[in-house]
Every structure is written in C-alpha cells, then in structure tokens.
Amino acid sequence: MVPAQDRRTRARTAALTVLSVALLGFGTVALSGCGSSGTTEATQPASIAPTPTTSPTDTADAPAASTSTSTVTTTTPAPTSTAAPATTAAQPTTVLLTDADVADLEKQLDEIDQLLAGVDADLSQD
Amino acid sequence: MRTPRSLKSKILLGATVVTAGAAFIVPTAAFAATNDVLPVRYERACLRIPNLEIRTNNLLTRLQGDASVRGSLAWLQAQIDDAKAKGRAQLATVLENRLRVRTQTIEVLNVRLGRLEKLADKCREHGVDI
Predict the structure, then answer these.
(1) What is the DSSP string of A23-87?
(2) ipTM exceeds 0.90
(3) CA atoms A32, A34, A37, A43: torsion sign
(4) Is the Cβ pair B27, A17 closer than 8 Å?
(5) Cα separations (Å) of B124 from A113, B10, B117?
(6) What digits encode the pLDDT tens for the residues B1-24?
(7) Residue A92: Cβ-neighbour burial (10 angstroms; 0-12, 13-18, 19+)
(8) Minimal Cα distance from B56: which residue of A?
(9) Which of B113, B117, B28 is nearest to A119 (CA)?
(10) Do B71 and A116 touch (CB under 8 A)?
C-alpha cells in the first residue's frame, strides 16, 4: 500500500474512533440522567387542563416532590376578551401538576377507601 | 489490507450514528410519555372521589339512623340495654366498646367527607369534571 494512503486511512480511523467515544460518553450521561422511566416519572411535573380561574398560588400548598430537582412549568395565557380589562388579560395562568400531587391524592383516597372498608367490616358484625 | 480498514471505518461510523440517535431520542421519548401519563393518573384518581363520597354518606346515614336501622348507634344502644336486661354482662361490655368505636367513627367519617370535598374542589380547579 502507498504510505500516503495508509496515513490517510489511519487518520480517518482515528478520527472516527475519537468521535465514537465522545458520543458514546455523551449518550451514556444522557441516558443515565433521563433514560429510566421510573426516575423520570418521579421527577417530572406535568400540567392538566388549566382553567382561567386557577391562580398560580394554587400550587403553593401542594407537597413538594421528594426527589424533584427541576420544575417544568406550563404557562397558558389567559383567554383574551375584549370586555376584560387589559391587566387581567395579560396575566398568564399557570397550573402545575407534579408526581407528588398525584401520589398524594392517590394516597389520601386509598386511605379513605380503607377506612370505609373497615367501617363496612365493623358493621357486618351486627 | 485495505478492505478490513474500510470495514472497520464503516462499523465505527454506524456505531457513532446509533449512539447519537439513542442519546437524543430516548430521553425525549421518556419525558413525553411521563407528561402524558401524569394528567391521566390525576384524572383517574379524581374520578374515584364521587363514589367515595357516596359510600361515606351511606355509612353516616346508617350509623346515625334510629333504633330500627341495624348497625346504627341507636340500634347498638338498644342491643346493650337488652343484653343488660338479660344479665349478659360480657356481651353488654363488648357492645359498649363497639358503641364507643362507632361514635368516633362518625366523627372520622365527617372529617374524611370534608377532605373529599376539598379534594374534589382541587380536581375541578385542575379541570377534571366531577
């Protein structure tokens, strides 16, 4: 083989190797950060059907996600109305729904469900 | 000599493309799936509330019924009186203990009913029609 061609081939191979390793590293980091569905589900908030009457403070009393490190806020502009004052039309409506919100609701309902089952069982003794 | 290196280069290129694609696509898909599931879970939980309210109200109605309603406090008190009249002290004690528990149950159910109403309000604020 001609030495010049050999050098070009080696250089190209080396460059591709470096690029592969770099992208492999990037991919590994990205997948470990977000790839696990369980971890993602526990940390990512989502929004649901915002209503114009809901104020941003509604999310303040929601329990914080235990493992949440970042927050995704979905902002929906308030419906524009020609009759409404300009100040209210400019206010965005933010409804934040986190995994902790859903888990807390489910937990409370499960607890009430169990209580009712217990009362049913108690009454069945009579 | 030349063919194996060419093959090696193609393999490396293929691996690079696959890795880059996985790095960008997988996290995006996982994030989108999560944001789709969470509102559905929330709405599903909210839709449990009406039946829990009905069950709670039914139990309260039964517990607060008159002496003809089996299981009510008044009915239980009548059973206690009857047991005492017949000299069945242990049965009367058991029923009295049950009556104490059941009296507290009414308070607990009332508290839970109030909590259900608040949860229902919150669900409505989030746009769930219940």
Answers:
(1) HHHHHHHHHHHHT-HHHHHHH--B-----TT--GGGGTTSPPPTT-------EEEPPP-SSS-HH
(2) no
(3) positive
(4) no
(5) 21, 57, 11
(6) 455 666 666 665 666 655 555 555
(7) exposed
(8) A116
(9) B113
(10) no
Alpha carbon of residue A73 to chain centroid: 9
Say how many C-beta atoms besides its own lie within 10 A of residue B8's C-beta: 14
| Contacts B48 to A, Cβ<8 Å | 109, 113
Task: State how far the Cα of B119 lies from the Cα of B79, in Å rounded to an integer.
Answer: 38
Q: Record the pTM.
A: 0.55
Nearest to B9 among A12, A41, A113 (CB): A12
> What is the average per-residue pLDDT within A61-79?
39
CA distance A27 to A34: 11
B123 neighbourhood in chain A, CB within 8 Å: 105
- What one-character DSSP code corresponds to residue A97? B
> Residue A105: its chain B contacts at CB < 8 A?
42, 45-46, 119, 122-123
Give yes or no for a contact between A49 and B127, defined as CB atoms under 8 angstroms apart: yes
Decide if A32 contacts B23 (C-beta within 8 A): no
Of B12, B17, B18, B25, the C-alpha closest to A30 is: B25
For the segment B69-94, the average pLDDT, to the nearest whole number, is 97
Contact at CB, B112 and A123, closer than 8 angstroms: no
Cα separation, A59 vs A63, in Å, equals 9
In chain A, whose CA is at the least distance from the CA of B120? A105
How many residues in chain A?
126
Give the Cα separation of A113 and A116 in Å (integer). 5
DSSP 8-state symbol, B69: S
